[in-house]
UniProtKB/TrEMBL annotation:
<keyword id="KW-0235">DNA replication</keyword>
<dbReference type="GO" id="GO:1990077">
    <property type="term" value="C:primosome complex"/>
</dbReference>
<dbReference type="InterPro" id="IPR006295">
    <property type="entry name" value="DNA_primase_DnaG"/>
</dbReference>
<dbReference type="InterPro" id="IPR006171">
    <property type="entry name" value="TOPRIM_dom"/>
</dbReference>
<keyword id="KW-0479">Metal-binding</keyword>
<keyword id="KW-0639">Primosome</keyword>
<dbReference type="InterPro" id="IPR013173">
    <property type="entry name" value="DNA_primase_DnaG_DnaB-bd_dom"/>
</dbReference>
<keyword id="KW-0238">DNA-binding</keyword>
<dbReference type="InterPro" id="IPR037068">
    <property type="entry name" value="DNA_primase_core_N_sf"/>
</dbReference>
<protein>
    <recommendedName>
        <fullName>DNA primase</fullName>
        <ecNumber>2.7.7.101</ecNumber>
    </recommendedName>
</protein>
<dbReference type="InterPro" id="IPR002694">
    <property type="entry name" value="Znf_CHC2"/>
</dbReference>
<dbReference type="GO" id="GO:0008270">
    <property type="term" value="F:zinc ion binding"/>
</dbReference>
<dbReference type="InterPro" id="IPR050219">
    <property type="entry name" value="DnaG_primase"/>
</dbReference>
<keyword id="KW-0548">Nucleotidyltransferase</keyword>
<keyword id="KW-0863">Zinc-finger</keyword>
<dbReference type="Pfam" id="PF13155">
    <property type="entry name" value="Toprim_2"/>
</dbReference>
<comment type="function">
    <text>RNA polymerase that catalyzes the synthesis of short RNA molecules used as primers for DNA polymerase during DNA replication.</text>
</comment>
Length: 598
């Protein structure tokens, strides 16, 4: 858990214009900066970045947030990774309660990671330079229909047919970082005491694998013609874990947003060839089965994932593993499909033979996750027999148990029930599904808290836009606000406490980031403030004082009307009424005094 104080300090140190400017071309427009929104297609800029609020807002699609939120949305990384990336840029170290390493050990680990990154970057540059003069490699790429432009875009290179070609880049060829990065193999000789060291990649087309920041973390090497293995990948290293990374994701991020979906293929060459042929939204797993982490990364980029597999037995097995990885993340707002090409084709060959439009049509007709799941569990079982239907249910049980409770799961349960001559309630009971829907009466939805209006909204808006004002709320003001809307008492206190905790350096961006974690209570208000021009804090202070005064007047008037309606029978009631009248007069004088000053 990263302390909120660190988040506030970080947001005070980074400049959102610099952060967004690395990814979006921004131009000054008045007090703000403008650009084309990276989150939806547009021809005229509606995306604004406010230096004073340290907030971005798109008037077209409504996207908004802090520098942290932008990195999460744009790069598809998690909250912690976004914080770490921003912190690294301003020389801050993210505190981590779980990290019990002594400072010296932590510094050593960071130094090792930097050394490995440096080694990988230099190796990538070397391989790229080697490709320029390797006619055999260039001829192979041309034969595969790849242009120099696409090779450059993916940073492709060539590892020469030499045992120690990297010596030209790393004169200290004995450097342990070369082994740790997976570039060099250090093998003990079976005879004698010496050691033999040589380049891992030789005479191969090199595909650099980048993380979401664009840093090279590994390589895939393909033989030029015949040879085994056809693809050779970097081993697992501190920088590179195959089960977490996807080839081409860094290059495909914008294309995925433009297309509205991501296409997951089986190989490096598929990704590069498809980008050449008009499908730059393709990525690939790295010689390993699709994992839940892969799926999670993809769903951070888009709500629509299409897996493309060969139609042969190996392709079916890969698709089944992908299905298993998707189930924990399958939901009502996600679309996951499976595309099976004819056994003799991969995506590259299919597009070249039948054209881009035919491939696009195949993608549109891809099999939905629900149908693929039911097809898998039906398998070769004879559903005309009780045994066949029971076996289908047996195979379906772990798959449905892996899914979160959702309308999608209920639809699959209904289809399975029909297929196996059961009822949805029987399936849910038999499978012991979490939060069953079919056999439980659905509770009526809870009445949602009404959106704030009038004075309440005006005050909330002022306090969120200027947290320094929320921090200055005293006990009397909080009591007045609690009486204005009793069901929001906790909200007022939460807002004041959050602002007070941040102190005099509280900012709208820092408060918005903290409120984001509490749910959607403030989301509309934050978006509204982000879209408006910056307001002066002194003007806002006067406006807040006026709004609080109106609130007090409203409460006084309500109590006076209640007393008058009772007939003012007792001395106590009459005395209370006079007190309220005096308070009312005092508030009017304050209002006139402020009006005169204004």
């Amino acid at each position: 858990m990263i302390p909120q104080s660190f988040i506030q300090d970080l947001l005070n140190r980074v400049d959102i214009v610099d952060v967004v400017g690395k990814y979006v071309q921004l131009k000054k427009g008045g007090a703000n900066f403008m650009g084309l929104c990276p989150f939806h297609n547009e021809k005229s800029p509606s995306f604004t970045v406010s230096p004073s609020k340290q907030f971005y807002h798109c008037f077209g699609c409504g996207a908004h947030g802090t520098a942290i939120g932008f990195l999460i949305e744009y790069s598809g990384i998690g909250f912690v990774d976004a914080v770490k990336e921003l912190a690294q840029g301003v020389g801050m170290t993210v505190p981590n309660d779980d990290d019990r390493l002594p400072p010296a050990q932590r510094a050593e680990a960071q130094a090792k990671s930097l050394a490995l990154s440096d080694v990988m970057t230099r190796a990538c540059d070397y391989y790229r330079k080697q490709l320029r003069g390797a006619q055999n490699a260039i001829a192979y790429l041309q034969k595969r229909g790849l242009s120099g432009e696409i090779a450059a875009r993916f940073g492709m290179g060539y590892a020469p047919d030499a045992w120690d070609g990297l010596k030209t880049v790393f004169p200290d060829y004995q450097n342990e970082a070369l082994v740790e990065a997976g570039l060099v193999i250090d093998k003990s000789e079976e005879e004698g005491a010496g050691r033999k060291r040589y380049d891992r990649f030789r005479d191969r087309i090199m595909f650099p694998i980048r993380n979401t920041k664009g840093q090279v973390i590994g390589f895939g090497g393909r033989v030029l013609e015949q040879g085994e293995p056809k693809y050779l990948n970097s081993p697992e290293t501190p920088l590179f874990q195959k089960g977490s990374e996807l080839y081409g994701l860094f290059e495909a991020r914008q294309a995925i947003r433009d297309a509205g979906y991501v296409l997951v293929t089986e190989g490096y060459m598929d990704v590069v060839a498809l980008a050449q042929l008009g499908f730059p939204q393709a990525v690939a797993t790295l010689g390993t089965a699709c994992t839940p982490t892969h799926v999670q990364k993809l769903l951070r980029q888009t709500d629509h994932v299409v897996f493309s597999f060969d139609g042969d037995a190996a392709g079916r097995r890969a698709a089944r593993r992908a299905l298993d990885a998707c189930l924990p993340h399958a939901g009502d707002n996600k679309t996951i499909q499976f595309l099976f090409l004819p056994a003799e084709h991969d995506p590259d060959s299919y597009v070249r033979e039948f054209g881009a439009e035919a491939f696009e049509a195949q993608i549109k007709d891809a099999m939905p996750l629900s149908r693929f799941l039911l097809k898998e569990v039906a398998g070769e079982h004879d559903l005309r027999t009780a045994e066949g239907r029971a076996r289908a249910q047996f195979d379906a049980k772990p798959l449905l148990q892996a899914m979160p409770a959702s309308a999608l799961r209920l639809q699959i349960v209904r289809s399975l029930a029909q297929m196996t001559q059961s009822t949805p309630a029987e399936i849910e009971a038999l499978f012991e599904l979490a939060k069953p829907v079919a056999r439980a009466r659905i509770a009526p939805p809870k009445t949602s808290r009404p959106a704030p209006v009038g004075l309440e909204r005006q005050i909330l808006r002022l306090l969120v836009a200027h947290p320094v004002l929320a921090a200055s709320l005293d006990h009397e003001a909080l009591e007045v606000l609690a009486r204005l809307v009793p069901e929001r008492t906790e909200i007022w206190a939460q807002l004041a406490a959050a602002s007070q905790a941040m102190g005099e350096h509280a900012t709208f961006a820092a408060l918005a980031e903290q409120l984001r974690a509490t749910g959607g209570e403030f989301e509309d208000l934050i978006a509204e403030i982000a879209a408006d021009q910056e307001s002066d804090v002194n003007t806002a202070r006067l406006e807040l004082a006026g709004a609080l005064r109106q609130t007090k007047m409203k409460l006084l008037k309500a109590e006076m009307e209640q007393l008058a309606a009772s007939g003012l029978q007792s001395d106590e009631a009459r005395q209370r009424y006079r007190q309220l009248m005096m308070q009312q007069d005092q508030l009017r004088r304050e209002a006139q005094s402020e009006s005169g000053q204004g």
